[in-house]
Fold this sequence. Notes:
Number of helices: 9
Number of strands: 9
Low-confidence stretches: 16-64
Order of helices and strands: HHHEEHEEEHHEEEHHHE
Largest sheet: 9 strands, antiparallel
Mean pLDDT: 81
Strand content: 15-25%
Oligomer: single chain
Strand order of the largest sheet: 3-9-1-2-8-6-7-5-4
Shape: globular
Radius of gyration: 19 Å
Helix content: 25-40%
Amino acid sequence: SKNVRSPVALTSRSLLKLRSSPDILPEQNEEIVTDAVTSRRSVLNRSLSSLAVGYCLPACKANAEETSAIEQPFTVLFTIQLDSNKPEELSELEIECHPDWAPGAAARFKELVELGFYKDSPFFRVLPGFIAQFGISADPAFNKQWMYCDTSDKEAVKLCKQPLPDEPRKVPNKKGTLSFASSGKNSRRTQVFINLVDNSGLPNFLDGQGFVPFARIVRGEDIVKKLNDEYKGNVSQGKAAYYGKEYFEKVFPRLSVIRDAKIL
């Protein structure tokens, strides 16, 4: 349906043109996810993992216990500046992450939080009655490594992080849950959105489009309602990724910003 909306993420293709024209910035090149397909390889890997745990020898016990510990829920705390004119007024958003919902997504989110990727990252796309999206770093170097690869730089290619493979959805995109945005199959990287309403079914059908929740808000849901939504979806993801904080502050200075993110 033409009325169906999707959280979309920057495609690396839109930034590759910077190789030959560094002074010409790419506009958004975003694609809408239309379906969710779990690869046969993912299904096979999960089946083999189950067999390995079921028939693990004593020597494997330590590894099994370590894996079990990693898969326990963990909490992330965002410190948010809602109003750009009031830097002294900070609010807290507590997020409970569930590896059992989507282990790949939870692990990627944890890694990015610990890396400092989301520090000073704004909520660049806030659409009332739909979603609040974040996940473009204020540091262009992070974006170059995690969001796109500069193929003209061999060292950059070596450091480039691959997108996450798709995972099966275990819980619906209910209000207060978090999912990674994507631009197609196996394309989740750094961008995450908060469901501001129940988006599992009508009218947005995010469940049917393959968006997989991995976390939920447990404290501060009222804060999400106060995020600045004046810019709607007008931020150019390509320019934001290339310039980072400089672009956000000069072109969209009143965005609500994640000032700090940490694992509790």
